[in-house]
Amino acid sequence: MISNKAKYAFRALLAVAAAPDGEALTSAEIARRYGIPHKFLEQILLDLKKAGILDSRRGKSGGYVMLRPADTVSFGEVLRIFEGPLAPLPCLSRQSYRRCEDCVSEATCEIRREFGRAYDASRQVLDSRTIADALASAPFGAPTEEKHRLTG
Amino acid sequence: MISNKAKYAFRALLAVAAAPDGEALTSAEIARRYGIPHKFLEQILLDLKKAGILDSRRGKSGGYVMLRPADTVSFGEVLRIFEGPLAPLPCLSRQSYRRCEDCVSEATCEIRREFGRAYDASRQVLDSRTIADALASAPFGAPTEEKHRLTG
DNA sequence: ACAATTCCCTACTTATGAAGTCGGCATTTA
DNA sequence: TAAATGCCGACTTCATAAGTAGGGAATTGT
Q1: How far is B61 from chain A (nearest CA, A)?
Q2: Nearest to A139 by CA among B110, B144, B101
Q3: Which residues of chain B have pLDDT under 70?
Q4: Does A115 sit within 8 Å of B2, measured CB to CB?
Q5: In chain B, what are the domain boundaries?
Q6: What is the pLDDT of residue A148?
Q7: A4-71+131-151 architecture in CATH?
Q8: CA distances from B4 to A54, A84, B78 (A)
Q9: Global pTM?
Q10: Which protein residue has its CA closest to C1' of D17?
């Protein structure tokens, strides 16, 4: 299970990315909209800023905007910010490889081999799907703001 | 990252499954062989027994054997015993479904949709690959006991 | 100028789970 | 019948999740 922190981060990111044009969203507004504890969300948005994904403006009419375009921000990248390495074993992580302490031979470790398969499969998805993808692929029948305006 | 407990469970299971014929392996022997804390391993083997995967004999010349054949025990099943649900979100777990507390609409939740893809991919592997598969697919060049006897 | 608004930063709390440790009872067999 | 082995519950220690709390720093509408 992913942490609440990560889940909140995705909600916030999707909201900021979906905001019209370059309009800034305040932390208070996001918190209100999704029922996220405000002070907690502030920390999360800060983390996203430090990671170079969001930008912010202070003071009246301040808020958060995307720093990088939403189609360059993958789910995997965001998840790693809040959860650390996604690999099921330290010896499978590319970004922060660590040998298992009790490991005899990585090349013949059955556990490593099998979990490697599973990790490859999930990484393939997480590192290729972006925030923009997620917003674009609304299921048929679920009215977006746009459709709503046209058909409602 | 999976827990040490789960990792130890896999090591132990693979060892018991690989033991010649129906020969029983003691917890002490497994612990010694892989450097696992003995008392901790005992708890783990107990869990595997309660789950109906291992059987045990007590007293002198006791130990653990497979209760079910190794090709019916998937990595996913074992992992769930020690880690609980594998799903990244409660609303994606089939075995122990729970609606996200703040969820507005599962059908349109982008987070659910994207993590659903990732989970499907990884579950496909974990629930199909078995302990027997893992033992069978030794990489080329790594001598098994069998090969060793023949070629060494 | 100044007050309201918003982001920014640090420290703290509370609860939960991981990863064992410890002591001893129960059963089997040489 | 004693040694070996599994079985069981309670406890400890440390790290992390999930916030809470309080205030400082920048910006802007008036």
Answers
A1: 28
A2: B110
A3: 138-152
A4: yes
A5: 4-71+131-151, 86-128
A6: 31
A7: Orthogonal Bundle (1.10)
A8: 36, 17, 13
A9: 0.90
A10: A3
